[in-house]
Design a protein that fits this description.
Number of domains: 3
Mean pLDDT: 79
Order of helices and strands: EHHEEEHEHEEEEEHHEHEEHEHHEHEHEH
CATH architecture of the largest domain: 3-Layer(aba) Sandwich
CATH class of the largest domain: Alpha Beta
Protein name: DUF58 domain-containing protein
Keywords: Membrane, Transmembrane, Transmembrane helix
InterPro entries: DUF58
């Protein structure tokens, strides 16, 4: 709680002190009494306001904050309702004289004061306003700041009510088309053992990394001593790994990379593929799980992994993370995995590590070019050529360009 006199309070206290000095010097009892009354007015008001702190005591006021929708994509508007409730006569009295102000992170308020609508009832006040989620991340909103003054207007107190809430902001997502004839051609589907659906769903095959565990035929697995799965059309869908090489410098390039990677992951999930996202920060997780179900919860699970992504601290860290992720992809037995990557200009070691990925997988890559210098542009072009020689289908992209356009160009690189 922050307690401070108003301009009127400072003036009254100043007059009281001056009068007290004058009365003492002149020996005037009346002036001393007047001075004491002025000082007592300010001091008593401060004591009463502090005692009636709405955040403490048996008659405290409860605050509930509702944030909808949450989580939300960057660029979306979020509605916030703050409900302030009094439960007895004492808290209703405290509620009557309160003024309210809400706090929000700059990424939600853009640094401007929040404009709210206040609805008052006898024992219930609702503060409603909207904010815009400007950037991916976790951003605090609240707590509520309440201000109260005494009846004479000599003292004000500010305190906070309730807890803060957290707004989780996902990256911006682009709706990407997924032409199956390009990403997974008919010869590939035959090689994978995929077939048209039939009434006989008991055809079994060995378990491969990325298969949905709900397809495991447990009785046959127990007899054979190895996991067996039902081989229907759904089980034959290739698993997809989305690999993101996060940039070091540009915040814009970082957000574009994450947005492109998340868009590709959701597009492939909606097309029926098991999907996982790799960003280099979880390189020790060889068993990084695939998400299978085409449900809102599955989409949320993928998007939640992007909220806390940050740029690497150093180039060596970024290279180490990318190589570890490439080795993980090379060591898994996903049975013809599809790898979709958003990369920067790569070092020789990184190119060599990624070259082995396409020995058993099908690789598609967007290679960022910031275009700030001719040398960086040349490095990006060299990376594209090296990936193509290794068997990747790669194109160069500019951070900030339309993600759908970049995706279409990458798919067109096969022709």
């Amino acid at each position: 709680m922050r307690l401070r006199p108003t301009a009127r309070g400072w003036g009254l206290a100043g007059v009281g002190l001056a009068t007290l000095g004058l009365g003492t010097g002149m020996g005037s009892t009346d002036l001393v009494r007047i001075a004491a009354l002025a000082l007592l007015c300010v001091g008593g008001a401060a004591a009463v306001v502090a005692w009636r702190d709405p955040a403490r005591g048996r008659s405290r006021i409860d605050v509930e904050r509702l944030v909808m929708p949450n989580p939300v994509h960057a660029g979306s508007v979020v509605g916030v309702d703050v409900h302030i409730r009094a439960h007895d006569v004492g808290s209703r009295t405290r509620l009557a004289g309160l003024r309210f102000a809400e706090q929000a992170a700059t990424e939600l308020s853009a640094g401007r004061p929040l404009k709210a609508q206040v609805s008052r009832e006898r024992a219930h006040v609702t503060v409603s306003y909207t904010v815009e989620a400007a950037r991916r991340g976790r951003w605090p909103i609240g707590p509520l700041v309440v201000t109260r003054s005494d009846v004479f207007g000599t003292v004000t107190t500010s305190t906070t009510l309730g807890d803060s809430a957290e707004v989780r902001v996902w990256p911006t997502i682009a709706a990407l088309p997924t032409p199956s004839d390009v990403l997974v051609g008919e010869p590939d589907r035959v090689a994978l053992g995929a077939r048209s659906p039939s009434t006989d769903d008991a055809s079994l095959r060995d378990y491969r990394e990325g298969d949905d565990l709900r397809r495991v035929h447990w009785s046959s697995s127990a007899r054979r001593g190895a996991l067996m799965v039902r081989s229907d059309e759904r089980a034959g869908m290739r698993p997809v790994s989305v690999l993101m090489d996060l940039p070091l410098r540009s915040a814009g390039a970082l957000e574009w990379t994450i947005s492109a990677g998340a868009s590709m992951a959701l597009a492939m999930l909606d097309a029926g593929h098991p999907v996982r996202m790799l960003d280099g920060t979880h390189v020790s997780a060889v068993g990084t799980p695939f998400v299978h179900a085409r449900t809102d919860s599955a989409r949320s699970a993928l998007l939640d992994r992007t909220i806390d992504l940050e740029r690497p601290r150093a180039a060596a860290d970024a290279e180490k993370a990318l190589i570890a992720a490439a080795h993980m992809l090379d060591s898994t037995e996903a049975g013809g995995e599809i790898v979709l990557a958003v990369l920067g200009a790569l070092s020789v070691r990184s190119r060599e590590a990624l070259a082995h990925v396409v020995d058993t997988a099908q690789g598609w890559a967007m290679v960022r070019s910031d275009g700030s210098t001719a040398a960086r542009q040349s490095d990006a072009e060299h990376t594209v050529r090296a990936l193509r020689r290794a068997g990747w289908r790669a194109v160069m992209v500019e951070p900030g360009e339309d993600v759908v356009g970049a995706w279409t160009r990458m798919l067109g690189s096969v022709r």
